[in-house]
Design a protein that fits this description.
This protein is an alpha/beta fold. The chain has helices at residues 10-19, 22-25, 31-39, 47-72, 84-91, 99-112, 115-126, 142-158, 165-190, 202-209, 221-224, 231-236, 238-241, 243-271, 285-288, 295-326, 348-365, 368-374, 377-395, 400-421, 429-456, 469-477, 502-509, 560-573, 615-630, 634-637, and strands at residues 132-133, 136-137, 462-464, 483-491, 499-501, 515-527, 533-538, 545-553, 595-603, 645-651. It is 53% helix and 9% strand. The longest helix has 32 residues, at 295-326. It is elongated and about 110 Å long.
Length: 676
Amino acid sequence: MNKQMERISFAGMLVTLGIVYGDIGTSPLYVMNAIIGDAGKMGNISSDYVIGSISLIFWTLMIITTLKYVIIAMRADNNREGGIFALYALVRRNTKWLIFPALIGGAAILADGTLTPAVTVTSAIEGLKNQRLGAFVFSNSQHDVLIVTTAVLLILFVIQRFGTGTIGRSFGPIMVIWFGFLAFFGVVNLLTYPEVLKALSPYYAIKILFSPVNKAGIFILGSVFLATTGAEALYSDMGHVGKKNIYATWPLVYLALFLNYLGQGAWIINHARDAAFRELSDLNPFYEMLPHDMRILGIVIATFAAIIASQALITGSYTLVAEAMGLKFVPRMIIKHPSNIKNQIYISTVNWLLCVITLGVVWYFGSSQKMEAAYGLAITVTMVMTTILLFEFLKSKLAHVYALAIALFFGTIETIFLLASLVKFIHGGYVTLMIMLAILYVMWVWYFGNKRRDHYERESEYVSLLDYRDQLTRLTADESVPFYTTNLVYMTKIKSDYRIKRSTMYSILDQEPKRAKVYWFVTVNETNAPYESNYTVDMLGTKNIVNVQLHLGFRKPLTVSVYLHQIVDYLVEEGILEPQEPKYSTQKNRKVGDFKFVIINEQPADLSANDQIKPLDRRLIGGRIYLQNVTASPVSWYGLEFSNVVQESSPLFIVQEKDQYLVRRKIYHSVAHEKK
């Protein structure tokens, strides 16, 4: 993290406004709209209903966002990084079962993130209905809104591959304008009905839950919760901007949001019984409370804010997936770094999956109001899981009874929100739940497939490379074996004690011996310096066995074949390797021979024959291998597309145990060999 972000500064606060508050900062676009929907129509709304609802919003932001996340959770930083995966990494050694809330919470936040770009951009674009832009009048058609929304989202996802450094620098000033806009017009409308300030009292929040004017009852909390869905993202973004800058900016953001909610509430109370509105249930008080000549400006600023919120969720998804890869929760995917800042990453697979799902959500629901019905259900699950992990962290900092009291306080409130949000299941919440379960299934199979494979993988599946030095030296000199290639390369990890997977040696020695002049075992290590490129060589006391450890910066291209050609040149020039000058070549003075890269793909076919593996474990291991084979190919991962690559299949377990129950009955017509 940039040291500037570790202390409070104007620049740091500006960046924080642009990165952290996109999701929670755009909640005024749809929260009050959802609360109107809970009432059925504008004509059903009373002042008590509005004041009570806004009071619930105020105290939800105070308890969940401010108290839990800003004050408590942000103290649980893992090397200044935040979020549910960082928190899990901090406490995972406490007990093994913590993996379950980590997986469930991670899947839920990734699933809910698919709705944020959809609902925010759609809410902003819907303000264009019947608006005049010069001589052009935008239609009242929701279909036209969806087309514009689709175009905006497509552009947003397309530009991700180019990086967002330039755009990102403008996010802060735009969000300053946005929050100023929220506060100003909130105050303007608040002055028309100052009595709405009674919402500051928790009395009205509690009263509305049991009041007959609230036809939704406790389920109104499902709509209220939308105001704080960005709290988890706030915690996750801590590593990008520094906690001190969040401490400094959150009070200002909180004030701007609340003033706008008060202004929207005042407008609703003043116009609920107007003939033009009383029969409506689908209207956005955020736009309605703006003066007519300011409506276009509001739409433009809201659209930019929605784009920034969407951008924050997209890049946040990249970060979450990258963290999940590090924790071995998801398969390996190709990560690109469009800038020299390591935290700014791009994962093509994630980007286009998000794009497809988000556009699918837009067209499936058709309007922001219907999307709101599905929005927020999954994130309540994430918050409950975060509270469980937070309890484990607090136990190490506080007395057990205090940690338990804090966890029960937040857990109870969040469980109530979760129960209230369950009504959304039949109204669209099942969509995000299905997405969440699909992500959770992938995580489950990958993580536990790894664990079960390691459990059954015997020590015999690993061998010491040192034990095979003599065999490889003899194989190189054995002219009775057909010559395979000059440089035979295996992309494999060698442990510190020279242990290597048996499948590698099996490929060289057992599957028709591969005679080569030099055997290469290459490990690629990513470093934090963007353009670092260095290597170490271990010859193992030979002339034909090379253990190479490549150390490459996160922005260096993974073109392993190019690096190996250079390494061979250096080693030949220094006399460490024997010359490799080919007899025939199109290149003059070429000193490097040919290369073959062998990629070993594990196949689960032998799982069915292993009766020692339980059926569930067999499915987990098989699923894990399948995911490995359909995700990032080692060929593309190591930049070997234009190299001579041989892909081989290998059984999962090379050494098979003998069946102790196999009994010999009799041997017929054998010819005995004479003993010498």
